[in-house]
Amino acid sequence: MMWLTLAGMALVTFALRASFLLLPPRLDTPPLLRRALRYVPAAVLTAIWAPELVLSPGYEQMAAGAVAIAVAWRWRVTFATILAGLAALHLFHWLL
Amino acid sequence: MLPGVVAFGVITGVAMVASGIPPLVAMLMSVVVFAGASMVAAAQLLASGTPALLVILTTVFINLRFMMYSASLRQHFAHQPLGWRLLIAYLQADNVYGLTLMRYAERPESPGERDFFLGAALAVWVAWQLAVAGGIVIGAGVPASWRLEFAAPLAFIAITIPFLRERATVGAAAVAAATVVAAHGLPFGLAIPLAALTGIAAGLALEPRRA
Q1: Residue-averaged pLDDT of chain B
Q2: Which residues of B touch A77 (CB under 8 A)?
Q3: Model ipTM?
Q4: Which one of B70, B157, B196 has the shortest CB-CB distance to A72?
Q5: Where residue B108 falls among pLDDT bands split at 50, 70, 90?
Q6: Is there a contact between A90 and B152 if contact means CB atoms under 8 Å apart?
Q7: In the structure, what pLDDT confidence band is assigned to residue B110 with cuts at 50, 70 and 90?
Q8: Which residues does A80 contact at the CB level (< 8 Å), separation at least 6?
Q9: What b-and-e string marks burial along A62-96, b requiring 16 or more CB atoms within 10 Å of the CB?
């Protein structure tokens, strides 16, 4: 069961990564697909973290998430975002 | 760039082992799948008894962005030999894509873009695998009071924000967030594919009209 999942994940992930790189050079990408793909990272990645902030009991996750978003927006440094978010989580836990 | 990769890698390793994935399977997954966000999500779904097919479906949606990178990298690498294109495909990662595209935008027509991509991608790959291995070893040894599990959503926030460049992408993220929260009662993580679809639709609807 776990092996099947592992093989399936590896296969679909590589297929997505290889997809357009395997097409012949002259073939054009359909314009609507190209436009739709632009919004995939914003939509999918946000759908992963939003519930962790909004649906957690209490408000400390939401407040710490807001701090992390602000830090990410201003400096765009992954490490700083994680550190600031964790520090804010502990601070708000202590305050709230 | 590398400190962020290491931080996310360690968190991914810790999260996989904490969800009950055996250490060797977790390390193998890191090598063959090499996509942190989908690995954390899959570990959580497996822990809650989700069927394999639905875990793989969720992986498709979370990793759909690699299709976008693939379409974009094709403009630079379509004429490379097949073997190089397969290697380039395997090594795609969010930050490598961002870094190389920035460089290509600054210096169009520069020779050696393939070597620049491979150099950056290999450095990230090695740092990532070592970090995941470290996370797996640390595993359950991290005290729960540190609340390190919250680092996973924080890492996703750090990856997401650079994509939010204008009204349409911000709208796509906002609608996806609203959808996933409203639909969180759906079984088997189906809220994520649903949020992907409504978010993409919102992005397309908010695009500036071309004259």
Answers
A1: 89
A2: 4, 158
A3: 0.89
A4: B157
A5: low
A6: no
A7: low
A8: A71
A9: ebbbebbbebbeeeebbbbbbbbbbebbeebeeee
Is the CB of residue B43 less than 8 Å from the CB of residue B169? no
- State whether residue B14 sits within 8 Å of chain A by CB: no
What is the pLDDT confidence band of residue B111, given thresholds at 50, 70 and 90?
A: low
Instruction: Give pTM, 2 decimals.
Output: 0.86
Chain A residues within 8 A of B196 when measuring between CB atoms: 40, 43-44, 47
> Over the stretch B124-149, which tens digit does the pLDDT of each residue have?
999 999 999 999 999 878 887 888 88
**Residue A25 burial class via C-beta count within 10 angstroms: exposed 0-12, middle 13-18, buried 19 and up:** exposed
CA distance A74 to A81: 10
Concatenated DSSP letters of chain A: -HHHHHHHHHHHHHHHHHGGGGS-TTPPPPHHHHHHHTTHHHHHHHHHHHHHHHSSSSSHHHHHHHHHHHHHHHH--HHHHHHHHHHHHHHHHHH-
Q: Is B157 on the interface with A (CB under 8 A)?
A: yes
Token pair, residue B4, equals: 């962020």
Helix or strand or coil: residue B115? Answer: helix
Q: Which positions ≥6 away from B115 have C-beta within 8 Å? A: none
Name the one residue in this structure whose structure tokens are 């079984």. B187
CA closest to B72 among chain A residues:
A20
Binning pLDDT at 50, 70 and 90, where does residue B205 land?
Answer: very high
| Contacts of B95 by beta carbon, 8 Å cutoff, 6+ apart | A78, B1, B4, B5, B124, B159
The set of residues, in sequence order, having a beta carbon less than 8 Å from that of A57 and lying 6+ positions away, is none
Residue A79: closest CA among B108, A87, B115:
A87
For residue B167, give the H/E element and its range.
Answer: helix B167-182
Are residues B77 and B118 in contact, defined by beta-carbon separation less than 8 angstroms?
Answer: no
